Amino acid sequence: MTIKKYRIRKPKIVVVGGGTGLPVILKSLRNQSADITAVVTVADDGGSSGAIRDSMNLTPPGDLRNVLVALSDMPQLYEDIFQYRFNEEDNYFANHAIGNLIIAAVSEMRGSTYEAIQLLSRMMHVDGHVYPSSEKPLTLHAVFKDGTEAVGESNIATDRKTIDRVFVKNTNDEEQPKAARKVVKAIEEADMIVLGPGSMFTSILPNLVINEVGEAIKNTKAEVVYICNIMTQKGETEHFSDADHVRVLNDHLDSKFVNTVLVNTENVPEGYMNPEIYDEYLVQVEHDFQGLREEGCRVISTDFLKLRDGGVFHDGDKVVDELFRIVFGAKY
Length: 332
Description:
- With about 325 residues, the protein is α/β, with parallel strands linked by helices.
- The chain has helices spanning about 20-30, 45-55, 60-70, 75-85, 100-110, 115-125, 185-190, 200-210, 210-220, 240-255, 290-295, 315-330, and strands spanning about 10-15, 35-40, 130, 140-145, 150, 165-170, 190-195, 225, 230-235, 260-265, 280-285, 300, 305-310, 310-315.
- It has a single domain, classed as 3-Layer(aba) Sandwich (Rossmann fold).
- It is built from 12 helices and 14 strands.
- β4 and β5 (about 150) form a beta hairpin.
- α1 runs parallel beside α3, α1 (about 20-30) packs across α12 and α2 (about 45-55) runs parallel beside α5 (about 100-110).
- Required for morphogenesis under gluconeogenic growth conditions.
């Protein structure tokens, strides 16, 4: 059992991203008495989320579902039910997570995924705020170094081309993508902005390239911390060093806005990863400390590694301990 820490003043920490990396950090943050806001990508178009998005014209629920669970104190049985995924043989319901269907149903009932997430946050006793980065579903576009383009998050890594840049468009209209309500305000009032961990081009950047979100992060007085990925990712960050990750972030916003980067220095044991389960991850990210210095950011390098179930993850507690050392050193 984890004992929650309490502080007189809770630092305001905004965590931006999606995928499987974000919940790891949020679970540990929940035990550290922080005022947490999660800003979650809505550009996912694969699997259960993609099917619901296409059939109901909703923002994809999968990443939002995982974030709600990470910040909730509901009993384990309720969590297991919310996260249960139907078997492949179950015809129409195949591979759908029950939580995705609940979010879709409440979204239809309330006429808004944003409103659905706020209602479910209260029902699930979520400790913090959960906001989709946009209130409309977004389509992710990638422009490759050879000038070709891929449309849709699930298609970007298919050809394993080198990505030059990504951008988002509203899926169902021609309007400029806008930040969801309260997202910009949360960023402006934050003591710290945390990016990742997560897929660079498909989990983190889809949030930042929404103009209002990117501008708010560039202009914030908060400490902007990037949690660098431990492994390179097939079709996204092949052959990337840690400095390459930061360079891509800075280039997309045309500003050296990343203040601090957390870098794991612990080696992953050779042959540890199970390629049948984690087939998108390739090799460990190489270090380029000179390149990081050229990007103008402070580097904190130590053991952030957690090995579990044949996979490589960040140790949420170690990462969050470091985040609190930074935020209290910078603000208090």
